[in-house]
């Protein structure tokens, strides 16, 4: 049973004991497909998200002190679109908790945080989850090179923070 009201959404930097699970999710889902990316390189990226007051930030969803999902917010998302900011990133829901609204809940949390920071739009790219974002109201605004396979394009999405 997953009740979204029972989840804690915490900054990863306040709960560093969950760093390794976030790194592992990220590496397994995306990193291992990027040429030259290793688990330790991935960890360095995540460690850099544990310091500082501004972006990037990572949040984790905890159920009874067990990590069940994560999401990030970054100022810079893709070198081909430096004009766009901020970016939703690293959205991941543990397999056994999928299909119960947690992914959408993490997106709403991130949008709310971006809005509080004064942003009026939010962006993301994906090469594998277009159907999820289209279904959830994101506007397809173009393409960027897919870092997981530079011969391929990833779809670029945006939403207004109303
Ligand atoms: C994509 C992902 C985050 C979805 O998380 P989730 O918790 O299962 O999603 P939710 O339960 O919040 O789904 C919200 C809505 O999207 C729909 N949905 C979920 N996955 C979908 C998909 N792959 N395609 C289309 N619609 C989808 C759900 O049916 C639900 O619709 P409803 O509100 O009309 O009932 C999860 O599958 C995941 O972590 N995948 C691996 C990592 C990934 O692909 N991340 C995306 C960034 S690249």
Q: Helix- and strand-based class? A: alpha+beta
| Rg on CA atoms, Å | 15 Å
Query: How can the largest sheet be summarized?
Result: 4 strands, antiparallel
CATH superfamily of one domain: Gcn5-related N-acetyltransferase (GNAT)
- Beta fraction of the residues? 25-35%
| CATH architecture type of one domain | 3-Layer(aba) Sandwich
CATH class of one domain: Alpha Beta
Strand order of the largest sheet: 1-2-3-4
Task: Name the helix and strand elements from N-terminus to C-terminus, one letter apiece.
Answer: EHHEEEHEHEE
Task: Give the helix proportion (percent range).
Answer: 25-40%
pLDDT below 50 for ≥5 consecutive residues: which ranges? none
- The number of helical runs is 4
Dominant shape: globular
Question: Which topology of one domain does CATH recognise?
Answer: Aminopeptidase
N- to C-terminal distance: 32 Å
Counting copies of identical and different chains, the oligomeric state is single chain
Give the bound compounds: coenzyme A
Mean pLDDT: 95
Total number of β-strand segments? Answer: 7
Textual characterization of the structure:
- With 162 residues, this protein is an alpha+beta fold.
- It has a domain at 4-116: Gcn5-related N-acetyltransferase (GNAT) (Aminopeptidase, 3-Layer(aba) Sandwich).
- It is 26% helix and 33% strand.
- The chain contains four helices and seven strands, in the order βααβββαβαββ.
- The protein has helices at residues 19-29, 39-48, 102-116, 130-135, and strands at 8-11, 57-63, 66-74, 87-93, 121-126, 139-146, 149-160.
- A four-stranded antiparallel β-sheet has the order 1-2-3-4, sandwiched between helices. A three-stranded antiparallel β-sheet has the order 5-7-6.
- β6 (139-146) and β7 form a beta hairpin.
- α1 (19-29) crosses α2 (39-48).
- Bound molecules: coenzyme A (COA).
């Amino acid at each position: 049973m997953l009740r979204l009201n029972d989840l804690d959404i915490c900054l990863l930097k306040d709960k560093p004991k969950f760093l390794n699970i976030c790194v592992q999710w990220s590496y397994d889902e995306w990193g291992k497909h990027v040429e030259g990316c290793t688990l330790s390189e991935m960890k360095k990226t995540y460690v850099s998200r544990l310091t500082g007051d501004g972006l990037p930030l990572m949040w984790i969803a905890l159920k009874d002190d067990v990590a069940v999902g994560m999401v990030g917010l970054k100022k810079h998302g893709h070198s081909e679109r430096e004009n766009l900011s901020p970016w939703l990133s690293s959205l991941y829901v543990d397999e056994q908790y999928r299909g119960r609204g947690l992914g959408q809940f993490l997106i709403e949390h991130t949008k709310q945080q971006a809005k509080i920071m004064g942003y009026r739009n939010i962006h993301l790219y994906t090469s594998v989850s277009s159907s999820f974002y289209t279904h959830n109201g994101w506007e397809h605004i173009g393409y960027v090179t897919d870092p997981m396979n530079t011969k391929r394009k990833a779809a670029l999405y945006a939403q207004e923070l109303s």
